[in-house]
Every structure is written in C-alpha cells, then in structure tokens.
Amino acid sequence: MTAPVLYSFRRCPYAMRARMALRYSGVPLSIVEVSLKAKPPEMLELSPKGTVPVLACADGRVIEQSLEIMHWALAQHDPDNWLGPDSAALIEANDVEFKAHLDRYKYAIRYPEQPMEHYRAQGAAFLQRLEGLLEQTPYLAGDSLSLADVALAPFIRQFAHVDREWFDQAPYPRLNAWLERFLASELFTSVMAKTA
Fold first, then answer.
1. What's the pLDDT tens digit per position in 83-134?
2. For the sheet containing 5-8, what is the strand order?
3. Mean of the pLDDT values across residues 147-168?
4. Counts for the chain of helices (H) and strands (E), in that order
C-alpha cells in the first residue's frame, strides 16, 4: 500500500502541528514541501483551496485541515494518550480568537486601524490564560504532553518571534519556559529539519 502524502510548508504553524502528530504516531509518510508561489498541480487537484497542510491518505481520502490530520494520525497510534485530556475548547480559542490577533500583530502594517501594540495586547490576553494553566500543571492540559500543547505551540512560537525581546520580558515565565522546552524537543526539531 502506498504511504500517505503530506503537502506541507515548513514554517506554516498548521503544517507544523500536522507534521508533529504524524511523526509521533509513526505513520509512514511522504512529505512534499510546497512552494507557496508555485503550488504543485497535484495538490491543487486534491484540494482546490490551495493551503497547507493537505494529507492524501493511502485509501484515497483527502484531509485538508491540520486538526483533522492530527486526529487522524492519533487514531492510528497514540502511545502517550495525547487525546486523553479534553482540550477542544482551548484549541478552538487558539485557532479562532488568538490566531486573528496573531495575524494582526504580526502583519500590523496590513491593519493600520490600530497600532501594533493594540493587537499584541489582544493576543496577550490568551497568553495570560495559558500562563494560568501552566501555574497548575507543567503542560497545558495536565502532567504530560498532549494534543493541546502540540496544537498550540507553533502559534505561540509565531507570536513570540514577532518581538522576542518583548516576549522574553513579558509576565509569562511559565509560558516562556514551556515554549523553550517545546522548541528544544526532538519532536519539534525533527519536523523542522530542512530537507534537501
């Protein structure tokens, strides 16, 4: 049987989280690194929306949403029970509200209605929520890594990198430590390695 094919873009946070879940689950996989300026015709045929990630499963099924790809991978193999804690509401808050603030903060020049600091403050409310969770447990949904951590980390990484100096001195020491631990993990570094 042919291995699934993941169409990905290395720096896309949605693609990052899909790659991490697929790697963790041990699903045999081919990854096609997509140039956003020259998207492969075969990817567009599978998914006309033209955004990554896109997973072409061996059975012909096409999965076009990163969270759905994560759930599919974990349904194949989830040795550490990432799906155990219920983190759906937290992930939805990240994907809907926080992502909108992140986009405006990162690309503030496109949203001149407010200064960059305004968008950062809106996103920081979510960072404060995560800091509160990490005051209780070492990970977002408990004592071990779970779907919540892997689904959110690429977006927190992106927010932190807009102005790393600000993030490092912001009143979120637990979140900062959580992010650093995540960025240094074998799981993250392995999926971020550049391919030839």
1. 998 999 999 999 999 999 999 999 999 999 999 999 999 999 999 999 999 9
2. 30-33, 5-8, 54-56, 62-63
3. 98
4. 10, 4
Residue 43, both tokens:
């990817």
Identify whether the C-beta of residue 99 lies closer than 8 Å to the C-beta of residue 154: no
Q: How far apart are CA 196 and CA 194, in angstroms?
A: 7
What does the block give as tokens for 162?
């807009």
Buried b (16+ CB within 10 A) or exposed e, 4-20: bbbbbbbebbbbbbbbb
Entry field: residues in the chain = 196
Distance of CA 22 to CAs 17, 69, 89, 102, 109, Å?
A: 9, 8, 22, 25, 35
